[in-house]
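Exercise: predict the fold of this chain.
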Amino acid sequence: MATATSNQKLDYPIIVRKFMHPSFLDDIIKNVSDMLEKMKFIDRCFFREYADFIRDVKRFKESLLKFILESKIQLSVLKDNFQKSKYKQADQHRKLEFIKERLDRIQKETLFDYLTACNGLIKRSIELHEKYGSTLFKVKYIVLHLLGFTIAGAIAGFTIGLVIPFCGGIEACVGAGVGALIGLAYVTYKLIVNWKDQVKKIKVIQKNLKETQRALKYVLKNMKSVYIKFGEAKDEQQNQSKNDSFQEIDDLENYVLATLDSFNVLEEILSKPQTHE
């Protein structure tokens, strides 16, 4: 029995042929690849909220930029006409009607909706930063990845052990150990590079969202001032018989120009290149 066992162990050509057999290599590659895919799936699950957040921020910016462009068209038309002789020669009533017509094409309520959405994204960025920066998150991430790579190593080791007589269990243990070491290296890399990078990106996006929030509030403030000044100009128009001055409409034009400038500032903030793009 001992002699037979010894001969079986020393039959290296057979072992080499088994190792080199396409089906054997395919099995190892398939088993390891399947486990690596599971690791990628774990990554996607762990950072799914981050991916959803990035997607929502992108959609928010694209939608708001489109709204800004449409609003700037109306304000730019007003600005251009303020310099034209035909507009300057028009009476106050016609000027007010022309300004009102263009302002009414800007949906003020939509601006409030964008501000609400921006506030929501800022809140999510704070929650995500707290979540991904927590010790509990890092522990879960490390444990699951170490477990996954240990299992992958054990499977690969066991597969190798099948072609080496009486060593299946040993090879599986060795494979598990190797898998654990690979997993440790992988997790260390992910935590040092990818994880820190993603946490940093959240902070950068949060900063940009807060700048957007302030710019939106400034646009809304200017829009409110325009409508207040428009009402004052209407009152002045009704009191023309008392020989009041026409200063109110000049002020209204200045507020319109200030609103256009605030839209330009908002557009500039949104157009800043971000780390996630």
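Check your answer against the key: The chain has one domain: 21-270.
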